[in-house]
Design a protein that fits this description.
Elements: E1 2-13, E2 16-27, E3 31-35, H1 42-49, E4 57-62, E5 65-66, H2 71-77, E6 78-82, H3 93-102, H4 108-121, H5 137-148, E7 155-159, H6 167-184, E8 187-191, H7 195-201, E9 204-209, E10 212-218, H8 219-225, E11 230-236, H9 247-250, E12 254-260, E13 263-268, H10 271-284, E14 289-295, H11 299-308
Parallel strand pairs: 3-8, 3-9, 6-7, 7-8
Antiparallel strand pairs: 1-2, 1-4, 4-5, 9-10, 11-13, 11-14, 12-13
The structure holds adenosine-5'-triphosphate and magnesium ion.
Length: 314
Amino acid sequence: MSIVQVLKLEKSFGDFKAVNKISFEVEKGEIFGVLGPNGAGKSTTLNMLATLIEPTSGTAVINGFDIKKDTKKVQEIIGLCTSSTKFFWDFNAIEILNYYAMLYDLDSGARKRRIASLIERFEISEFQNKKFAELSTGMKQKIALAKSLINKPKVWFLDEPTNGLDLEVSKTVRKVIRDIVKEENTTVLLTSHHLSEVEELSKRIALINKGELVVVGSIKQVKDGLNFFDTIYFTLAKQSDASQLEFIKKIEGFEYIRVEETRVLVRARSPQKLIGKLINGLENKNVKIYDLEIKRASLEDAFLKLIKGGSGSK
Ligand SMILES: Nc1ncnc2c1ncn2[C@@H]1O[C@H](COP(=O)(O)OP(=O)(O)OP(=O)(O)O)[C@@H](O)[C@H]1O
Ligand SMILES: [Mg+2]
């Protein structure tokens, strides 16, 4: 059964509907991506699920608890981290983590063990005694992430967790997300503007635009539904004859071929499976090529098409 059920969730600010009756479900143990352009309603959705703001109508059920009726229970089993978490500036990492750990019903042994393991996981010890105000953005974000994991949440909400971080810290954060999901059987709802990050971490996504749910499903389903093809490019050696390429059209699976002088573009849904046939065919026809490259349709292509209602990847 789904661990998160979002049921016609709506949030209005005055007359403005920031989130318009959206419904979707998240399975236990998955990293679910919530995507959408600026102002789409992603943070508002996560903030409602994390019980920071009240829905105007609709609700959600998290691990069997209703966010409206069982708010306290929900708070005990979730964690939320945003990219702009602020703490007491004069506190250091240990003091901050201790402070938040006290809010949960943990005995002092369990509290100490949890904090120690988070400090290790996020490599916080090297700056654990520095005041929060004196830390870099990356260090601050590590503390914010650790704080949101203090209670070993069953559902971990991450609102742009790598926003503003350098490549190395972002990589560490992605690794920790994967490790936590694996080791603690946590479920993650993640928003990000880095689509490659979502593609790396998530199998399933929801796309929100102007408060409306545009699509929900696996990244593959979303791409397939939009009729996206991967592309193979290759360059012919000079002496090769482009008229010899007609055979490609007869190979089942290749949908489209375009030849521009020596540059050839072939579209297919699963080119990995067809590449052997292509190479064999080229050899049989004695067509020599210099290079060959497979370019996969990206989530970015799908995203832009869905948001702009465009006509697909170029
Ligand atoms: N407290 C508020 N009062 C009024 N309007 C709000 C409030 N919070 C959010 N909004 C509006 O609701 C809409 C959705 O905002 P939200 O922060 O959820 O978007 P988002 O998808 O998280 O965008 P971003 O990618 O920029 O973080 C925006 O138009 C925003 O201006
Ligand atoms: Mg946001």
